[in-house]
Amino acid sequence: MPISDLKAQIARLPEQPGVYLYYNGAGETLYVGKARVLRDRVRSYLGARGTSPRLDALLDEAQQLEVIVTDSVVEALALENNLIKQRAPKYNILLRDDKTYPYLQLTTGEAFPRVLVARRVERDDHFYAGPFMPASLARRAMSLTHKLFGIRSCNEVITGARGRPCLEYDIKRCAAPCVRELCSEDEYRLAVEHTKLFLEGRSEELVGTLGDRMIAAAAGERYEQAAQLRDAIRTIETLRARQQKMAGTEFGDRDAFGLKLGPAGAVVQVFQMRGGKVVERVELVTDGAADLSERDVLQAAVQQFYAERPAPPEIHVPVPLPAADAELLEGWLSARAARRVRLVVPKRGEKRGLLDLASRNAEVAYQARFNENVAANYDALETLRTVLALPALPRRIECFDISTIQGSETVASMVVCEDGRMKRSEYRKFRIRGSWLVARGSSAAARSSRLATRSSPLAARGEEAAGGSSQPAARGSETAGGSSSAELRAAASEPRIQDDLASMHEVVFRRYRKLLENGGPFPDLVLIDGGKGQLSAAYAALNELGLASLVAVGIAKKEELLFTRDREDAIALATDSPALLLIRRIRDEAHRFAVTFHRLSRRTRDLRSEVDVIPGVGPRRRKALLTAFGSLAGVRRATREELVRIVGAKTADAVLAHFASRA
Prior knowledge:
Strand content: 15-25%
Number of domains: 5
Low-confidence stretches: 242-250, 435-498
Number of helices: 25
CATH class of the largest domain: Alpha Beta
Helix content: 40-55%
Shape: globular
Number of strands: 19
Largest sheet: 7 strands, mixed
């Protein structure tokens, strides 16, 4: 239905402020706009054909019109923002915050707050600081909050009734609010206030507060506490001296918007200045902005940026907005901030210098993002986001693969892809131990066994060798994987059929348990080399860790179909799709990394002596046995009395038992 067929409806529209929505025949929202006078604004579309390709496409596709009347144009602006965010209309300018830098979350919504790494700022009762660039700086800052202020890192429910504190208190990384006698609720609340000052960058105020407490502690002869406060002050002052700060004597609190518009899209760089220092840089991106003007993109950027952020008293923009739009935006921002907010186009001086710096950064970001290779990567990621219905662009993808030959030397690999580029420094490799599941507990082992599908009579023997018995594990010393060293050596001496599903369950559990302990970073997408079985095993591990919200997808080896948790049928991407090419590249890299590690493990196994797998025989006793008896055959022929003289009675019995089982 052409737009002219809506003439009769447009003629009946009210002459009041409000929001108008265009829909296609399927009822999907195509465009959301605001208007001071609905009838006049919507009527202007009747003669707008030929203005731009984007507008022509909207007029051709629009079949329905709906309006929402509001009391004021400011309310219309707020409603427009909410509808654009909820519905993501096809023809609106949608700028996305494309950085993946983490934030630190101070969980002030809890009785005894913690500091956690967060990927996005939520509207909740917690306090957020950041983003931190590079990402490692967030974890270092989090560690400092434990060291300087004693903020807890555990997930325990704090009642104050615990009998004794944990190791974190002994190494002076926690104030131990779990023990009321060591740290009261008021004392911990004070530590939280200091942490908030630290995360906000208010170092001078924090140093002054800590200095007063240090003097009071020294006067009260609490010298150990005074020394801790002194060390905290020195650390904060050292950090403050090392920070690279951009400061101006007259800057105050303001934001500067730099803009670069080109045929491939638009990049907006926002420099946020607080207290005369640039404290944050945010990048907003939109694709396909060839027929848009700088004013269109800038107005959309200001609206969407401050929809969830408080606005400073001044916002510096590179080009002036139309007077009516600028007045409307200033009124809306002022109402939200409860004080006056102005849109300013600085012409000279330090203020113009900051604006020019933001614009130069926007140009650099545009060139880096929209060159040919980067554009292809973003096209692939955007396709994946659409096909898999992801909430955000899958900037970080982690892929897992298992490598084994008949259950021998089973290993796994994990590779990381960020922004379409492989990040080799974060690759990880794992040795799979089936007995690790037993050490975790019978319930986990039972769950993993339910995942298993075996096609050979040897599978039962493989399960026994890989899983072992829980009794030896209880007797032996525990290794890092959770099994006794004797059990692992005994398992290594037997041929095993290691189940692929249990292996995938184990490696995914181990990987994300470690990430939980370290506070991230978590991936936007988990790629599993395998079909529905391997995907189910991965989700079983994620569910155990409480990470069911992570999105995982399996890729079949031959058909190259994608399997998801929410769809019965597999997803088939076109063979020349950039998304499939990217997934294939990540999968092949995981396979290469796993196979390389598997070959190395086999070579190491082949060079290992059979004596190495005897319980109780380590490098020193192996050397003593081979030196005394000349060879493995000599050790095999030795009598018990001869062995006792070399390695003692207990190990001699273990050697005889081992070779007797091989007879």
